[in-house]
Amino acid sequence: MARLTRYSKFEGELDQIDSSELMQMIQEALLGQGMNDPYDPDPNTRPSMDDLFDAILEALAERNMIPEDLLMEAMQSEDVRETKLGEQIGRLMDRLQQDGFIRKEFEDGEGGGQGNPGESTFQLTDKSIDFLGYKSLRDLMGGLGRSSAGAHDTREYASGVEMTGELKNYEFGDTLNLDTTATLGNVMGKGFENLEESDLVIRQAEYNSSAATIVLLDCSHSMILYGEDRFTPAKQVALALAHLIRTQYPGDTVKFVLFHDSAEEVTVSKLAQAQIGPYHTNTAGGLRLAQQLLKRENKDMKQIVMITDGKPSALTLPDGRIYKNAYGLDPYVLGATLREVANCRRSGIQVNTFMLARDPDLVGFVRRVSEMTRGKAYFTTPQNIGQYVLMDFVTNKTKMVN
Fold it and tell me: Residue 174: what pLDDT?
């Protein structure tokens, strides 16, 4: 943030700001709900270039980075886009496109020329997704280093595998992962010609199993209700997990499923700009789709990471209609959902659930899910969910072997 702070006294051209710095400044807007009308019936509506302009303008204003003369002119104008400030923000937007962070698209097949920013939309590129995933991962891992959030799962499920790199004397059959410092310490006094098997010291290795992970993300309307945006932090966690797996565990796979009235798989690029969907929570549909995706994977470990703030309240009927009941825990919905949980258990799929609410019905449901699949349940908040998810993933990935 030190490089950004200098702009609070910046007197030159704003378009000197580096594209990666600009992406960092507007990442919350790119991932959050502000890029789309929350009442738009189509949650997949792409954000417009006007949305991007507003996000950059707000980011500059929040950081006191707008020179006084440009600010005064903009405040006196009916349209900021027609001012010098608007021109400079336009150049910043052009640079984001030139540097490969966004891809501008035109409605109704239009193309070419400058056009009106309101007539065009944009998509995030693979480069921007990778940047946002790296930034989210760095922030979350930094949080782990600064504080001890712990992994406070429900008291019934305080299990896990610890990671260590402890030393031990070599025994026949061990992998010869020799610790040279400790071994040399044992033989320095008596000479190498007197080296014995008991002088060898090995470091116990951490074995990373191959894993297939499905992130099952609740995007029902409750995720942005009650004055709190829970969906944006959840998306940041998903992007961070995708970046972690891609860079540190290349043998692993991760896929994403959104569930609301129904459920659908989305790519990581679509996930970044996904919006809140319809009102209800079709957990059974999400679990069913997650199982279908995991059946295609040939991995040592298969798991579902479910992030939710509500109890199951919807169900897809055999004829495709959606049965909904938002009041209480409907026995019909619960029974069908638990049948999908039982199918996960039979397939050896562990379900770890991260709860963003403490509703008694939700807690009771998640407790049963954890018991049935030998998974874990975590009470989390939008502020610490990333630490919980990443710690849980890395811990479950690691097994101790001699």
Answer: 63
Q: Which CATH number is 274's domain given?
A: 3.40.50.410
Q: What is the DSSP string of 208-240?
A: E--EEEEEEEE-SGGGG-TT---HHHHHHHHHH
Q: Which domain holds residue 185?
A: 167-203
Q: Report the C-alpha gap between 221 and 228 in whole angstroms.
A: 11
Output DSSP code: residue 384: T
Sign of CA dihedral 310, 312, 314, 316: positive
E strand or H helix at 324 = strand 322-324
Q: Does this model's pTM top 0.85?
A: no
Q: Same domain, yes or no, for 77 and 225?
A: no
Amino acid at 115: G
What is the number of domains present in the chain? 3
Query: DSSP 3-state assignment of 309?
Result: coil
CB 356 within 8 A of CB 380: yes
Picking from 177, 203, 229, the residue at the C-terminal end of a domain is 203
In sequence order, what are the beta bridge partners of 324?
314
CA atoms of 38 and 291, how far apart (whole Å): 30
Residue 56 lies in a domain: yes
The CA–CA distances, whole Å, from 231 to 264, 289, 311, 341 equal 16, 20, 16, 24
Backbone angles phi, psi at 316, to 5 degrees: -85, 120
Strands 314-316 and 301-308: unpaired
For residue 105, what are the β-bridge partners?
Answer: 121
Residue whose C-alpha is closest to residue 156's, from 320, 371, 312, 328? 371
For residues 179 and 318, membership in a common domain is answered with no
10-residue block means of pLDDT along the chain (402 residues)?
A: 37 77 90 61 70 92 88 89 91 94 72 51 90 86 47 33 54 65 76 73 66 94 84 92 88 94 93 86 97 93 93 93 89 95 95 90 91 90 86 67 30
Q: Count of CB atoms within 10 A of residue 398's CB?
A: 16
Domain match, 228 and 362 both: yes
The two three-digit tokens of residue 34, written as one number: 């502000």
- Domain identity same for 260 and 285: yes
Task: State CA 214 to chain mean position distance.
Answer: 12
Length of the chain: 402
